[in-house]
Specification:
Layout lengths: L11 E9 L13 E2 L2 E2 H9 L7 E6 L2 H9 L3 E4 L6 H11 L2 E6 L9 H12 L9 E6 L14 E4 L5 E5 L13 H9 L1 E10 H9 L4 H6 L3 H6 L4 E5 L10 H17 L1
Parallel strand pairs: 1-4, 1-6, 4-5, 7-11
Antiparallel strand pairs: 2-3, 6-10, 7-10, 8-9, 8-10
Helix pairs in contact: 3-6
């Protein structure tokens, strides 16, 4: 079912939505874990408000504890229904709060540079060579060629115009056997490491969410392949480094260290 917006509603140009759930499989309750005196999800919301392009920031959750914490901190938060993915949760919020562009921010990446999120919005506002872009995402060069072989690291290949050709957990492009060990270094140079932050044109997100899961998405476990399987265009914005996310308690300690170092410098 597509989105229907009430006649006469005011449309914010850019909406940032932060999906946040309590029941993380590897780190339950991480959204409310302390990061330098504030819950993790609140720190992400603070960062989002530093974006120059955004008109509104809304945290989207199905947990009353997260809703209470976020609103008490002075940020907007909406309760949503049960959803299989954060993207579906973002879609529900967008339907109630129309915008031209919606940025899907990760609730566990407080170190994402707001300027990089702004670049995603900029990528959707510029159609290069008359090529209309449906959504944009981030990626960066590998800092260690060994990560290219790691199935937990998502790789992306680009065409000559900076659009995504394919995403995979496998080491792509495949190495020609005769190239031997040099192929690993070459493959890591040709691929980029994907960062799962997205900006969608509103109509593109509405279209994406009604598409069925395709065989490539099923095989790789990567929902962005649904867009490619259905001929949607994904612009890839290159950044310098991957923002450290919080998947485990150990990750949180590293993020705390980096957060304090960054904000001490300020």
């Amino acid at each position: 079912m597509g989105f229907t917006f009430a006649e006469g509603e005011t449309v914010s140009k850019v909406l940032a939505v932060i999906p946040a759930r309590y029941a993380s499989s590897r780190f339950p309750g991480k959204a409310l874990a302390d990061l330098a005196g504030a819950p993790l999800v609140v720190r992400v919301a603070e960062q989002a408000t530093r974006m120059q392009t955004v008109d509104r920031v809304i945290v989207a959750t199905d947990d009353t504890r997260i809703h209470r914490t976020v609103t008490q901190a002075g940020f907007e938060c909406e309760m949503t229904g049960d959803h299989p993915t954060g993207t579906d949760r973002v879609g529900e919020v967008l339907q109630r709060n129309p915008a031209d562009i919606v940025v899907n921010l990760q609730g566990d990446e407080p170190l994402l540079d707001p300027a990089d999120a702004d670049r995603l919005v900029g990528a959707l506002n510029r159609d290069v060579d008359l090529l209309s872009v449906d959504l944009a995402t981030l990626a960066h060069p590998f800092d260690d060629p060994r990560q290219w072989r790691d199935p937990n690291v998502v790789k992306v290949l680009l065409d000559q115009k900076g659009q995504a050709l394919y995403f995979s957990r496998a080491p792509i492009p495949g190495a020609f056997p005769a190239h031997g060990a040099a192929a690993v270094e070459r493959g890591a140079q040709l691929a980029l490491r994907h960062v799962g932050v997205y900006a969608f044109k509103a109509e593109a997100l509405a279209h994406f969410l009604v598409l069925p899961r395709g065989p490539l998405e099923e095989a790789e476990g990567l929902e962005q392949l649904r867009a490619l399987e259905n001929c949607m265009t994904i612009r890839v914005v290159q950044i310098d480094n991957r923002p450290v996310g919080v998947d485990t308690a150990a990750d949180l300690e590293e993020v705390r260290r980096r957060w304090l170092a960054l904000h001490t410098e300020e």
